[in-house]
Amino acid sequence: MKAVQITSYDGPDALSYDEVPTPEPKQGQISLDVEFAGANYVEALFAGGLVPAPLPWVPGIEVSGRVRALGEGVTGFTSGDQVAALTINDGGGYGQVAVTQAGLVAPLPAGMDPALAAVVPSNTTTALITLERIAHLAPGEHVLVHAAAGGLGSQFGQVARFLGADRVVGVVGSQEKRQAALDLGYDEVWLRAEIDNAKPNQFDVIADPVSGPGRRTSLGLLRLGGRLLAVGDAAQAGDQGISSNMLWFGGIGVLGFNLGTLSAADPNLVGSYLRRALNLVATGEITVHLTEQAPIQDAPRVLAALRGGTTLGKTVLVHETT
C-alpha cells in the first residue's frame, strides 16, 4: 500500500509518500481501507520529533473508511461496513490501510458524509469524555475554553453548551480567530492577552489544550470547586509547576486527560463516546467545520499550517483508492 511516512524528525516538509507493507489485524483488531484521514496538530509534532515515535512511522490518529478484515475474536462488523475509527495508539491513518482495536471503530450514522466523519473521532470524542466523565460538568456551570477557535477548542465550547453550561467563554490569539469563535456560539471571546486582567473566580471549568503561563493564570479564574482541565501542550511550553497549596486553599483542582492513554486502557469506553460523538455531529447538535479536503500527498503543507497555528476548522486528507 501507499502511505505518508515520517522517516526523520526534520518537520512536515520531510514527510515522504512511499510504498510500505500492508498491516494485518491481530486478535481483537480491525483493519480498514482508509478513505479519509483527519489532519491534527499532534501529527505535526510527530513529524518534528516533539512527540517521540519509532521511525519510520505512518501517522494519523482518526479516519473513516470501510472494514477490510477482522482479527480473531472480533464480531459485530462485516467486510465493507462504512465506519469511522480512532487509530491513535498505533497510528497509520495516513496509510491506505490502517489497523486499530475493534473497540475504537464505530459505524457511520445513516447518511453521514464520510469525509466529515473522519474529523470527529479525536476532538469531539475528547470534549465529550473530558467534560462529562472527567470534569463532571453540571448544568448551569460557567466554562472557559482556551484556543477556542481551534479544532479541539471549537468542540469543547459546543459540547459544554450541549451538556447544559450556562456561560461559555473562549480565549483566542488573534482578532481573526475571535470572530471565528464568536461564530461558533461563544457568549464572549477574549484575546489571550486579556486574561491577565480578567476578574477572578468566574468559572467552574476551564479547558486548556495550550499550556504555558496561561495555565497557571487560569487557576485564579476558577470558583470554589472549579476544575482546570489539562488536555494538551500546543504551546510546547513543557511542564507548568502548580502549587498544591494553591489548590488546597483555593478549593480547586487540576485534572489531566490524554485520549491516547485512555484509548489504550479502555478502548470500549472510548468507543462508546465515539459513537455518541458521531451521532451528535450527524444530527447537527454539534458542528465540526470541515474547511478543506486535500489529497494525502499534501500532508506536508497541511501539517506545516497546523504547526504554524494559521488554520481554522478541520482539514481532511483524501486517500487514493487501493
Automatic annotation (TrEMBL):
SMART domains: PKS_ER (SM00829). InterPro entries: ADH-like_C, ADH-like_N, ER, GroES-like_sf, NAD(P)-bd_dom_sf, Quin_OxRdtase/zeta-crystal_CS, Zn-ADH-like_protein. It comes from the Bacteria. Residues 1-26 are annotated as: Disordered. PROSITE patterns: QOR_ZETA_CRYSTAL. Pfam families: ADH_N, ADH_zinc_N. One of its GO terms (molecular function) is zinc ion binding. Residues 11-317 form the Enoyl reductase (ER) domain. PANTHER family: QUINONE OXIDOREDUCTASE-LIKE PROTEIN 2, SHORT-CHAIN DEHYDROGENASE/REDUCTASE. This is NADPH:quinone reductase. It comes from Arachnia propionica.
